[in-house]
Amino acid sequence: MRIDILTLFPAMFHGPLTESILGRASHVVPLWGTLRDRQDDKPMEIHLHDLCQWGKGKCKQVDDSPYGGGVGMVMRADVIVPAVEAVMKDGVEENRGGPFRVYLSPRGKRLTQVKVEKFAKKPWLLLLCGHYEGIDQRVIDGGWIDEEVSIGDYVLTGGELPAMVLIDAVARQLPGVLGKDASAEEESFSHILGRKREYPHYTRPEEFRGHCVPSVLLEGDHAAIALWRRAHTL
Ligand code: ADE
């Protein structure tokens, strides 16, 4: 899967995308046009783009004050749209079709596991990270965005952390990202568990400061264990 990220703060992505499971699963292309050493063995290829590149004037301005007045700034359509179009053009010869374009915003539809699974099936995602009061509505109304997505009903300083949340959740669904010991098939919100919360887990020791592991899990009766787990799936 290819993921392009349009952001004012590309450096924010480096820790989360270079460590742990995501670090192993992704090849990060830090700056526009530098992917010449493609690593096809990785499940994800991530391209970071600094939106300032498309900024206006000497100061590379990306935002302006809102029409109608009010506090805050709005990201300009004539900055965002050329950036989206440039990304779409860059990947065009890769035969993935166009990217599925997601704008991260608190006004968007809630990110759920069902949505995550849908995104994981796309060969190419473009994630647009908003800032300030968001982007000019004409970017959305004009059809340059396919879906506006929120990670929850609270407001963050920008779309970067939500984009990382989305990438992490999507990555876990891709073949080869999790080992077989940590399958994404039977876990909270999975289809197999009826989209419910997974049953609790225990490991050694059997007794910890007076708290015991439920005895059914120690007795090796697989049917009884399955029953217990189903009863504890919420
Ligand atoms: N940007 C700011 N807050 C957000 C949220 N809750 N979800 C997605 N993008 C955001």
Q: Give the strand tally.
A: 10
CATH architecture of the largest domain: 3-Layer(aba) Sandwich
Q: Reading side by side through the largest sheet, how are the strands ordered?
A: 2-3-1-7-6-8
State Rg. 21 Å
Strand residue percentage = 15-25%
Provide the residue-averaged pLDDT: 92
Q: Mind telling me the CATH superfamily name of the largest domain?
A: SPOUT methyltransferase, trefoil knot domain
Provide the list of bound ligands, each named once.
adenine
Blueprint of the fold:
Layout: E1 2-7, H1 14-18, H2 20-25, E2 26-29, E3 44-50, E4 63-64, E5 74-75, H3 77-90, E6 100-110, H4 113-120, E7 124-129, H5 137-141, E8 147-150, H6 160-171, E9 207-208, E10 211-212, H7 222-231
Parallel strand pairs: 1-3, 1-7, 2-3, 6-7, 6-8
Antiparallel strand pairs: 4-5, 9-10
Helix pairs in contact: 4-6
The chain binds adenine.
Task: Report what the structure shows.
It is a single chain. The protein is an alpha/beta fold and 234 residues long. The chain folds into two domains: 2-180, Alpha/beta knot; 183-231, tRNA(m1g37)methyltransferase, domain 2 (Trp Operon Repressor, Chain A, Orthogonal Bundle), CATH 1.10.1270. It is built from seven helices and ten strands. It has helices spanning 14-18, 20-25, 77-90, 113-120, 137-141, 160-171, 222-231, and strands at residues 2-7, 26-29, 44-50, 63-64, 74-75, 100-110, 124-129, 147-150, 207-208, 211-212. α4 (113-120) packs across α6 (160-171). It is elongated and about 70 Å long. The protein binds adenine. Adenine binds next to β6. Residues 104-106, 130, 150-152, 154-156, 158-159, 162 line the site of adenine.
